[in-house]
Design brief:
Blueprint: E1 5-10, H1 14-30, E2 35-40, H2 44-47, H3 66-73, E3 79-83, E4 95-100, E5 108-112, E6 126-128, H4 132-141, E7 146-148, H5 154-162, E8 197-201, H6 202-207, E9 218-223, E10 226-232, E11 245-250, H7 256-265, H8 268-283, E12 291-298, E13 305-312, E14 320-326, H9 329-340
Parallel strand pairs: 1-2, 1-3, 6-7, 6-8
Antiparallel strand pairs: 3-11, 4-11, 5-8, 5-10, 9-10, 12-13, 13-14
Helix pairs in contact: 1-7, 8-9
Length: about 350
């Protein structure tokens, strides 16, 4: 007899739970008979806030996904909901990517305290991000800015930015170490530095319900009584899979109604695009600490895939660019990887 009740596993952050709600709504829309429960699972990345996200760590990959996958393999949950960009490029044996929802806006945005936004940030302003991809972009576009790593969920990061309104920025002048990512401890309640800007993904902010009011690349929104300003960044490719929600399930799932529902909510166009981006990441050695931006799109007339990417192989190296058009994710990913890397990983 087929079951009708299923458990969706999720991290406990506000964004993760919103994304799980979106998955639940999509499943109920195609299969109203399903009874869905939510189970919060704490991942290594959630529990160890001191881990540096911008460089390899002893815990390896899957900081925000491994415990969800373990619960899935153990039968404690029936599916795991992930931000696809957090998932390692190799799926563990016994699991599969069962569905990918339609992709949200892939853009990165910079949040600032001043309405002049990103382009008018004063020299020496401090920008918060733990992404090597974003760091290298700042280094190439605004070499006069300071980049510091930052941890925490979206509301926590926004609160750290707001603290800058009441803290004085120390003038760093022409410090030759101005681009080096400082220790995570630099962003703390007693830190003399004040964040002036913050990198975030537009998709996450909008899923959390913030109305960014972006017009011609600029916008603003209210957060806890204060006004923050938004600059949508052009020319900065997103992380592979950014903006996509993935549902991971057991490879040998026998609950046919649940399987059918997952297939119905799967968005094949998004899947083709993010597969190309993730294959590129895998060919280059795959890891969230890589300064790789990639965006695949589909030509509506020909259904051809077009993959564009930028890659900085090591800190301060010259930026490399690549692009290719082809029929399959494998084809375009391999062609772009050959343009970007001297040696490709064995896949």
């Amino acid at each position: 007899m087929n079951r009708s009740s299923f458990i969706l596993g999720t991290r406990g952050s506000a964004l993760a739970r919103v994304q799980t709600t979106l998955v639940g709504e999509a499943l109920r829309a195609v299969a109203p008979q399903l009874v869905l429960e939510e189970k919060i699972i704490t991942t290594t990345g959630d529990a160890k806030q001191g881990l540096a996200l911008h460089e390899p760590v002893a815990e390896g990959s899957g900081l925000f996904t491994r415990q969800l996958e373990e619960a899935l393999l153990a039968g404690e949950i029936d599916a795991a909901v992930h931000s696809l960009k957090d998932l390692p490029v190799v799926t563990p044996p016994g699991l599969k990517l069962a569905a990918i929802l339609p992709r949200a806006n892939v853009a990165d945005v910079v949040i600032t305290l001043e309405k002049e936004g990103w382009n008018k940030l004063a020299s020496g302003s401090i920008v918060g991000t733990s992404s090597p991809r974003r760091l290298e972009w700042v280094r190439s576009q605004r070499p006069d800015l300071v980049v510091k790593p930052i941890r925490g969920n979206v509301p926590t990061r926004l609160r750290k930015l707001q603290r800058g309104q009441s803290q004085k920025l120390q003038n760093l002048g022409s410090d030759p170490k101005i681009h080096r990512l400082a220790p995570d401890s630099a962003i703390s309640g007693t830190d003399p530095f004040a964040l002036n800007a913050l990198f975030l993904a537009r998709a996450g902010l909008e899923r959390l319900g913030f109305d960014l009011k972006i017009v011609n690349g600029c916008g603003k929104f209210l957060f806890e009584g204060g006004e923050l300003f938004v600059t949508e960044l052009k020319g900065l490719f997103p992380a592979p899979g950014q903006g996509a929600i993935a549902i991971e399930a057991r490879a040998e799932h026998h609950d046919s109604e649940f399987e059918k529902a997952l297939k119905k909510i799967h968005h094949e166009e998004t899947a083709r695009c993010v597969t190309a981006e993730r294959l590129l990441l895998r060919y280059l050695g795959g890891g969230c600490h890589m300064a790789l931006g990639a965006l695949a799109t589909i030509d509506p007339a020909t259904q051809q895939l077009h993959l564009r990417a930028t890659y900085v192989p090591f800190p301060s190296a010259k930026l490399r660019e690549g692009e290719a058009t082809g029929t399959t994710p494998e084809e375009v990913a391999l062609r772009v990887a050959t343009q970007l890397g001297e040696k490709l990983a064995v896949v």
